[in-house]
Amino acid sequence: xxxxxxxxxxxxxxxxxxxxxxxxxxxxxxxxxxxxxxxxxxxxxxxxxxxxxxxxxxxxxxxxxxxxxxxxxxxxxxxxxxxxxxxxxxxxxxxxxxxxxxxxxxxxxxxxxxxxxxxxxxxxxxxxx
Length: 129
Description:
Layout lengths: L7 E2 H7 L6 H10 L2 E3 L2 E3 L5 E2 L4 E6 L2 E7 L9 H5 L2 E3 L3 H7 L16 H15 L1
Antiparallel strand pairs: 1-4, 2-3, 2-5, 5-6, 6-7
Helix pairs in contact: 1-2
């Protein structure tokens, strides 16, 4: 069992580790969907967590499984927040979370470009002749 000084509220830790933008959003995630701490479902944001606890929770469209490495003292920058936990997801799933951004392609929707208008005018002119 961890020292009481090394324990922190679940909603506060989720906020400090930057899983949620605000502390109230992290509290809503705990009360709404429920978070599992070491396999047990928890619905109270004031539940205390410590180093070594495994958290399972829903974030957007995926389920996150993480192990707490440090309790954290403040909400710092993202690189500092990543030092607070270890992601237990398989490497294939982690790679699929951050796909390369897709370049938008013209699909024939919206306003045509000048080049497209010229092509349309040429085809119309040929069809009318």
